[in-house]
Amino acid sequence: MAKQEDVFKKVVSHAKEYGFIFPSSEIYDGLSAIYDYGQNGAELKNNIKQYWWKAMVQMNENIVGIDSAIFMHPTIWKASGHVDAFNDPLIDNKDSKKRFRADVLLEDYCAKLEDKAQKEIEKAAKRFGDSFNEEEFVSTNPRVLEYRQKQKTILERLAKSLTNNDLADVKSLIEELEIADPDTGSKNWTEVRQFNLMFGTKLGAASESATDLYLRPETAQGIFVNYLNVQKTSRHKLPFGIAQIGKAFRNEIVARQFIFRMREFEQMEMQYFVPPGTELTFYEEWKQKRLNWHLALGLGNENYKFHDHEKLAHYANAAADIEFKFPFGFKELEGIHSRTDFDLSAHEKFSGKKLQYFDNERNESYVPYVVETSVGLDRLFLAIFSNSLKDEVLEDGSERTVLSLPPALAPVKAAILPLMKKDGLGEYAEKIFDDLKFDFNLIYEEKDSIGKRYRRNDAIGTPFCITIDHDSLVDNTVTIRDRDTMKQERVAVADLRRIIDEKVNFRTLLSQI
Is 101 labelled as part of a ligand binding site? Predict the structure, then answer.
């Protein structure tokens, strides 16, 4: 655990030191769980958005994108169920005065049980070597079976209690398992109560006539209320999808773990409209498609797993999370849900407007069913950033910190580095910079030794460093250094655009999905 905490502290520290993420309003002591993206963070974030948008919209002719408003009619949130049901179970520790989500306390307890099961499997794998049969061991080992059965029992009981709004039983479960405040060890808990997560605001110039509104807690409803507009103007037949990237706001009970859980965050969502009865087939298809999209980033297949929901949301008939192994363990990265016709039917009822589709093949009108894919942009940023941050010991015994980001996502694609400013090297380097800047985001650096400049660019994830020396003025060649291999090559200036593009363009990434 201590090692995980150290890794996470390094991630947070590196993000600030190298211009990726800053605490918001820091000179005024900041705001809890609100962060600003710095110069490199904004570039990385925008590149992640591009990767998602290109894969989702550009690569699928039956998916289009929109950008809906943050302020929406308040009845929308009544129709969607957010006014009545968008709650989390809250519990306070009487001694530490700290506030927790009761369900998360129980889920973390189950995660520890799974860690114990995994340790048993790892010990056995080491003991038996090549002859180890993991499937047989998992199905017969009494300790692994006990840990996993206990997990299952706890999660099923939690799901049932939350479905029935039996908060007393949630507290009983916490007490029976002797779950303590993770920071202080105290087991002195309050009752569990529900907490609505929406931020309220007002629309209007005069307070007495202002309309009560909410900051949207999700981006999906902006898609649903525009479904008919998009379908008619795009003339798409079912199945078709609507994608959106946008801000959402939730008054989280516990907003911790850096940018993993924030009160202002960004979502990348796609709602796929399908004929009734086909939704579970498309649900399975999109589960695999979305996993493939993540795997193409090259962060390691072992760092992903599916988690099927025990407790389904009121709108769903199937739901699963793609979980990622963050420095603090496996946590939700993306959700895939079969939302049935709940949303469109609810908006039909509350708005009085028909939101049906006439299916020529079936010769009938119906409210489409929906399959949703929803990934938290900030969580994805953290997954990519934390996985890419590495300390390496080199052959000569020296060390370097490198951010081995997927090249297409790197904030800076190449650094232009004149060996020195004088003797015309600076002017020649600037000429190369001015030629390449139309195609790539570059930085120009002439301060400090070339070694220090290499290290700075390793730390921000720059795929290439291009060094201009006196020979460059004679033969129009430069030294190009690869971030990951540190291999240096002499290449013609005329070839730079092609060499950089081959490694950093989105085609390379998208073709691996």
Answer: yes
Does the annotation list 252 as a binding residue?
Answer: yes
* 268 is known to lie in a ligand binding site: yes
CB 234 within 8 A of CB 90: no
Residue ranges of the chain assigned to CATH 3.30.930.10 = 1-66+197-392
- Which of 3.40.50.720, 1.10.3720.10, 3.30.750.200, 3.40.50.800 is the CATH number of 394-510? 3.40.50.800
The alpha helices in 80-224, defined as continuous H runs, are 82-85, 102-128, 134-140, 142-163, 167-176, 220-224
What torsion do the CA atoms of 372, 373, 376, 377 make, to the nearest 10 degrees?
A: -120
CB 338 within 8 A of CB 369: yes
Is residue 261 a known part of a binding site?
A: yes
Tell whether 258 is in a known binding site. no
pLDDT in tens, 13-53: 999 999 999 999 999 988 888 899 999 999 999 999 999 99
pTM: 0.83
Q: Which of 251, 262, 146, 133 is nearest to 199 (CA)?
A: 251
pLDDT on residue 162: 84
348 is in an annotated binding site: no
Using only C-alpha atoms, what is the Rg of the chain? 26
Residue 148 annotated as lining a ligand binding site: no
Calpha distance 236→63 (Å, rounded) = 9
Is 381 marked as a binding-site residue? no
First-residue to last-residue Cα distance in the chain: 34
Contact of 200 with 51, CB cutoff 8 Å: no
